[in-house]
Write a structure and sequence with these properties.
Largest sheet of chain B: 6 strands, mixed, barrel
Number of domains of chain A: 2
Largest sheet of chain A: 10 strands, mixed
Oligomer: heterodimer
Mean pLDDT of chain A: 90
Structural class of chain B: alpha+beta
Helix content of chain A: 40-55%
Number of strands of chain A: 12
Number of helices of chain B: 15
Helix content of chain B: 40-55%
């Protein structure tokens, strides 16, 4: 109890003297705010990207690509192959007895970005008859759904916000044919919101193609996947890769998330080292400025551990303040920012930066670690001050 | 010169503080050097693009292919000196992690347009002769230990052969060099005829055309003439200089690179703020000592110079070490960012920033010493 009172007294005394040492103390706060702001903003990008891409698709749906292709864009499936795939066991049937599955044609159109007017790859996904029944998460928010057989498109909210000329009612030219945008849709913020949707057959005929990219199928249940996969991979007429839709999109987000995490931890780590030296400097000078006070305290009976802890607490408090400022800056500047980049399908993915509580906690943990190391050595020096010498020093 | 020991003892007055300040400036410059080095890789790629070459891609998107028949039509456009063509092949070697940038092309046409890629006449002749022949860049060959005569299988994620296989066999017949920019010596080139005969779909198309113009000043007119020729067809084209094409591709990566650069700028200045603050504090603490110097007859100017010299020694020394560490880490990061070097102008810029930092942190306290009342200062008031 006595010890606690001592710690409280010394810490309080230290904290009250911070205004007199404002410049030096701000070194810790600003340094750590910088580290945490950088760490959190870059990770917010990784989180936002992963949330959008890996949040696409469902556990109970499967996606079928040609064997050996790593993404839809690289894959090609003949019409015969898509029909064989849609006949496979395990696919849920609708009331008319037709499989709820869609052969999809994914093509790319070059659209100017609103931010810099530079052309960027935007996907147009041509879906089959069951394409919408398959994805209940997609709902039109303005305008109407496209009609099958007509050159009509609906545009995702994300794509509409990032690229020019995608308002409802505008027209775009694809291979000399005129398409109109008749609606805009939302899809729980997943990566389909970066796309345009249309009727698959019409897209193929406009692009004069006859090959599909993928088949997406609603399975009877999550557990029907293995049987579905086996029946396709053992079919000698087919050479396909079968994945749960959710796993496919999680895999697609992997590379970008890894790159961003690497940047965040690498740059954040180097900065943390710099901030640590700053913290050490500050706390050493805080201790040296107060060496007479500390010696006086020791002389009147305060314990060494009370002195050590008070220095540590001061360092940690300053660090946490820095972390909160850094997290606040990252949140204020970046949270919810909509940005876009090239995803692994070689097309633009529009996503929202997400500063979530887990990231803030991570930032505070980093700050505490820096504060702890930065405070520990000066604290030990403070506790070891020879009392008599320090008292005599002017 | 006789003041050197004084300068030295001033620096080492508080050993731990000087060491820590030094270390945090070093960290700032390590970061600065690495970022600028990575930046330089991008800029090199841009600068390597020739002014007299145009890229002709599909207007819809550069991933769409163009008809093979455009070749002769583009050749007949006035001002065109030569035309070559390529496609994106999208391959890896043995494992999906080992991505290989491979392109089918017409060897004679291609190497005539790219004088910066050095391939011996014999190797070029061998490539033309050998249906499944391929030439690889020096860096790529080194990476996988390939040599002339090797038979190399590549797996294409896009193209299947008529028999359904995605695995393509090649015989390496030559190795090319790119003395100007080693990053360009990382590609794998092979015969378009082999590719077009063997692939199972999209026969008779090419990914994009490369056009060399007779006069670089006419590049824009030639580009417009090419696009005009194919306007209103079902395969409209978009013709850009190589540099514009490379820039638009970098812009596709988009906002991310901008945000990362912005963040890193903030980082650098945070670290400099920290050190600047500490250095200023250290001068403030020494006011009584500076008063002693003035009592001994040092002029204001001499004291200012002394303080600034101390700051300069510290920042320049730290900047040199930091940039040195950055340069030393590039080889370790080669697999991630490619062949990076610290350009001379980055070193100059770094030194200029070090001087600026020394002035910013040294001048205000130095200025104050010139207005010092010696008696007050000696008393520590």
């Amino acid at each position: 109890m006595n010890m606690l009172r001592q710690i409280r007294a010394v810490t309080w005394m230290n904290l009250r003297s911070i205004p007199q040492r404002f410049g030096a103390s701000s070194v810790i706060v600003v340094g750590i705010a910088g580290v945490v702001a950088v760490l959190i903003s870059v990770l917010a990008m990784a989180t936002g990207f992963a949330r959008t891409v890996a949040g696409t698709g469902s556990e109970s749906r499967a996606i079928v690509l040609r064997g050996g292709s790593d993404s839809e864009l690289a894959s090609t499936l003949t019409r015969d192959a898509t029909l064989t795939i849609m006949d496979a066991p395990g696919i849920r049937k609708d009331s008319a007895g037709k499989p709820i599955a869609s052969a999809e044609a994914v093509v790319i159109v070059d659209m100017p970005k609103k931010s810099n007017d530079s052309g960027a790859n935007v996907s147009i996904r041509g879906v089959g008859a069951a394409g919408m029944a398959l994805r209940p998460e997609i709902h039109v928010v303005t305008g109407r759904m496209f009609q099958r057989g007509l050159r009509e498109l609906i545009v995702g909210k994300g794509a509409q916000a990032q690229f020019k000329g995608l308002d409802v009612g505008s027209h775009i030219a694809l291979r000399g044919s005129d398409w109109s945008i008749v609606g805009a849709f939302e899809s729980n913020g997943d990566s389909h919101e970066s796309e345009l949707l249309a009727d698959g057959e019409t897209v193929l005929s406009s692009y004069r193609r006859n090959l599909y990219q993928s088949v997406v199928a609603q399975l009877n249940s999550k557990n029907a996947f293995d049987a579905f996969k086996t029946s396709l991979t053992t079919n000698p007429q087919l050479s396909v890769d079968v994945m749960r839709e959710h796993d496919y999109y999680a895999h697609q987000s992997q590379r970008m998330s890894n790159v961003l995490s690497f940047v965040a931890y690498f740059v954040g780590g180097i900065m943390a080292v710099g901030a640590l030296f700053g913290a050490l400097n500050t706390m050493y000078s805080a201790v040296s400025v107060r060496s007479r006070e500390i010696a006086t305290l020791r002389a009147i009976g305060f314990g060494a551990s009370a002195v050590v802890l008070s220095v540590l607490i001061e360092a940690m408090l300053l660090s946490v303040v820095g972390a909160l400022i850094g997290a606040g800056l990252a949140w204020a500047f970046f949270n919810g920012n909509v940005v876009s980049t090239l995803g692994s399908n070689f097309t633009q993915v529009v996503f929202r930066l997400a500063v979530d509580p887990a990231l803030v906690v991570l930032g505070v943990v980093w700050a505490c670690a820096i504060g702890l190391v930065g405070g520990l050595f000066p604290a030990i020096r403070a506790a070891r001050l020879p009392v008599a010498t320090a008292l005599r020093a002017v | 010169m006789k003041f050197l020991p004084l300068l030295w003892s001033g620096l080492w007055r508080k050993r731990t503080r000087t060491v820590f300040t030094l270390l945090s400036i070093i960290v700032a410059f390590v970061l600065f050097g690495m970022l600028q080095g990575v930046n330089a890789v991008f800029n090199n790629a841009l600068n390597a693009s020739a002014v007299d070459r145009l890229n002709v891609v599909s207007r819809i998107s550069f991933t769409e292919s163009l008809p093979f028949g455009y070749l002769s039509q583009i050749e007949s456009v006035p001002g065109v000196a030569g035309v070559a063509y390529q496609s994106w092949f999208g391959t890896y070697y043995q494992d999906p992690k080992n991505f290989v940038f491979s392109f089918p092309l017409d060897p004679a046409r291609f190497f005539a347009l790219y004088p910066e890629l050095h391939l011996s006449k014999d190797a070029l002749a061998a490539l033309v002769r050998t249906r499944t022949g391929a030439v690889v860049g020096r860096e790529l060959a080194k990476k996988y230990g390939w040599k002339v005569g090797d038979r190399v299988p590549l797996h294409s994620v896009i193209w299947t052969q008529a028999n359904g296989s995605s695995d393509w066999q090649f015989d390496i017949v030559g190795i090319y060099d790119a003395p100007l920019d080693p990053n360009q010596a990382g590609s794998f080139f092979f015969n378009y005829s082999y590719f077009d005969e063997a692939r199972s779909f999209s026969k008779g198309t090419v990914g994009w055309y490369i056009v060399k113009v007779k006069d670089p000043k006419q590049a824009m007119q030639v580009a417009a003439a090419i696009d005009k020729r194919f306007a209103n067809s079902s395969d409209e084209t978009k013709t850009q200089t190589e540099k514009e094409f490379a820039q638009s591709f970098i812009k596709q990566q988009g906002d991310i690179s901008f945000i990362v650069t912005a963040i890193l700028g903030a980082v650098f200045f945070t670290l400099l703020f920290l050190t600047g603050n500490t250095m200023m504090q250290s001068v403030r603490e020494r006011v009584p000592e500076l008063a002693v110097l003035k009592t001994l007859g040092f002029t204001d100017f001499a004291v200012v110079v002394l303080i600034l010299a101390e700051a300069l020694v510290l920042t320049l020394f730290a900047a040199l070490i930091g940039l040195g560490i950055a340069a030393a880490t590039f080889p370790a990061l080669k697999s991630i960012i490619g062949e990076a070097r610290l350009p001379a102008d980055v070193v100059t810029l770094g030194m200029a920033m070090a001087v600026l930092l020394a002035l910013c942190t040294g001048l205000p306290p130095a200025w104050r010493t010139t207005r010092l009342n010696i008696i007050d200062a000696l008393a520590g008031r």
